[in-house]
Amino acid sequence: MVGEPQPGRSPALNTAEEPDGSEEPTPSSHKSARKRHPAVSFLIELVIIVGLAVVISFVVKTFFLRAFYIPSESMEPTLEVDDRIVVNLLAPDVMDIDRGDVVVFEDTRNWWGSGETPETTAFQDAMMFIGLMPDTSSHYVVKRVVGMEGDTVECCTEEGEILVNGEPVQEPYVHPGNAPSEPEFEVTVPEDHIWLLGDHRSASADSRAHVDEPDQGAVPVDDVIGRTLVTVWPLERISGGGSNNEPFEDVPEPQ
């Protein structure tokens, strides 16, 4: 009968034959056709890795940690020029700051931020924005907290020590050869403010330079970006962030 398979030949083999001799592609040939070139796979993986790194860095920089560059001598010897530091952004909103902490704050009143900012390229600006490079902006300042709200800070005892709420404070971090302060002062820190000094007292235009202003040189807590966590560069200077609360342990609370 026309269309019936010939004796001795299976229907499957009979229907697989084509007049031009072509064959149906096997499953293995389909798989090899779909296989990506190694270079394409590498590029896709690289894009994914870089994208994840950017997202993670941005989240970390926004909520947890941020890198900064030290441009001046005002915090020597704790922090030196060209040091790169990492700042804990959880302070002061989630974690408290206290006397002796080294903090970075935004210079909203342009007290110390009028200096020159190092020139950067568009690529460097982008890297700083996502947190992969330290911020070199002059709009941020690093100093040490000496007085909290309500504290009375004054200079100085006969031995040359600063007093906080009447208690003399021995400051081991002050730059060798510097007095705790040359100008005399007495201030009471306003509510929701902190009062700050640089460790290199003779090279630091800190709160002392603004004691005649309404806030007596104090900085709003809202301007604080965070507390220094660690110095990460240069390698030989890797260390903690410089905070030292021990000298203030005996300071009484303000009355």
Automatic annotation (TrEMBL):
Chain segments carrying region Disordered: 1-33
PANTHER family, A to Z: CHLOROPLAST PROCESSING PEPTIDASE (PTHR43390:SF1), SIGNAL PEPTIDASE I (PTHR43390)
SUPFAM superfamilies xref list: LexA/Signal peptidase (SSF51306)
NCBIfam families registered for this protein in UniProt: sigpep_I_bact (TIGR02227)
Lineage: Bacteria, Bacillati, Actinomycetota, Actinomycetes, Micrococcales
Family classification: Belongs to the peptidase S26 family.
Name under which the protein is recorded: Signal peptidase I
Membrane topology field: Single-pass type II membrane protein
Cited InterPro entries: LexA/Signal_pep-like_sf (IPR036286), Pept_S26A_signal_pept_1 (IPR000223), Pept_S26A_signal_pept_1_Ser-AS (IPR019756), Peptidase_S26 (IPR019533)
Localization, UniProt: Cell membrane; Membrane
Chief location category: membrane
Superkingdom of origin: Bacteria
A GO BP annotation: signal peptide processing
Residue spans crossing the bilayer: 39-60
Boundaries of every Peptidase S26 domain copy: 44-233
EC category: hydrolase
Enzyme Commission numbers on file: 3.4.21.89
Reaction(s) the record says it catalyses: Cleavage of hydrophobic, N-terminal signal or leader sequences from secreted and periplasmic proteins
This protein's UniProt keywords: Hydrolase, Membrane, Protease, Transmembrane, Transmembrane helix
Listed GO CC annotations: plasma membrane
Entry GO MF terms: serine-type endopeptidase activity; signal peptidase activity
Record-annotated active site: S74, K143
